[in-house]
Design goal:
With 192 residues, the chain is mainly α. It has one domain: Four Helix Bundle (Hemerythrin (Met), subunit A) (Up-down Bundle). Helices cover 72% and strands 4% of the residues. A two-stranded antiparallel sheet has the order 1-2. Strand 1 and strand 2 form a beta hairpin. The protein is globular, with a radius of gyration of 17 Å. It starts with a strand and ends in a 6-residue tail after the last helix. The chain binds fe (ii) ion. Fe (ii) ion (FE2) binds next to helix 2 and helix 3.
């Protein structure tokens, strides 16, 4: 489908919308809507949709991290490390090796949004490395990681991805999308 998007570019868009999981009323009021407010209303180009689907998973984890208490901290820690090893680390690598260099051709490597993403990647990697090596459960650290992860994904979805969709030429975006979809297809379950 070809529709107008943003200021200048015509992009092939999917009508990707993350289906909000059914939640009880209390949870929805307490913050379940923040995932929707970050992703659900975004018309993401099909080329970057694979990464946005992974962002949805990351936001669900961020919510659990922010709400973690002593009662569930061990479970949330295990879920976080499982996510990191199976998905998060690869997601960061793809953004660092493919997405950001493609955008840097237009914006420059020292673009403020590129710098912010890289700095946040380092910080999140540091927090997870501490979690892996310390061997202890730290509720405050879980809550802080949740906020970092949420803010990071929000920035990518609300600011960076839109800029990339506008900056790249259609052929560049298509090439990037083909590579991202091939990577997404290898994910289990596939994210294509
Ligand atoms: Fe990301």
């Amino acid at each position: 489908m070809i529709i107008t998007f943003g200021r200048a570019k015509y992009l092939a868009l999917t009508s990707f919308r993350v289906k909000r999981a059914r939640r009880n009323t209390a949870e929805a009021n307490a913050g379940g809507s923040f995932i929707a407010s970050t992703i659900e209303t975004v018309q993401r180009s099909s080329e970057l949709a694979v990464l946005s689907r992974e962002h949805h998973v990351a936001l669900e984890l961020a919510l659990r991290l922010q709400r973690a208490t002593a009662a569930d901290a061990e479970t949330v820690t295990e879920a976080t490390l499982d996510f990191w090893r199976s998905e998060g680390r690869e997601h960061f690598r793809v953004e660092e090796e493919l997405l950001l260099p493609a955008f840097a051709r237009h914006a420059g490597a020292d673009d403020a949004d590129i710098v912010r993403v890289l700095v946040e990647h380092v910080e999140i990697r540091r927090r997870i490395a501490d979690m892996e090596t310390s061997g202890r459960i730290d509720v405050a650290a879980l809550n802080a990681l949740g906020k970092s992860l949420r803010d990071h994904v929000r920035h990518e979805e609300r600011t960076l991805f839109g800029r990339i969709e506008q900056a790249l030429e259609p052929e560049e975006l298509a090439t990037l999308g083909t590579t991202l979809h091939a990577i997404g297809a290898r994910h289990q379950p596939p994210r294509t």
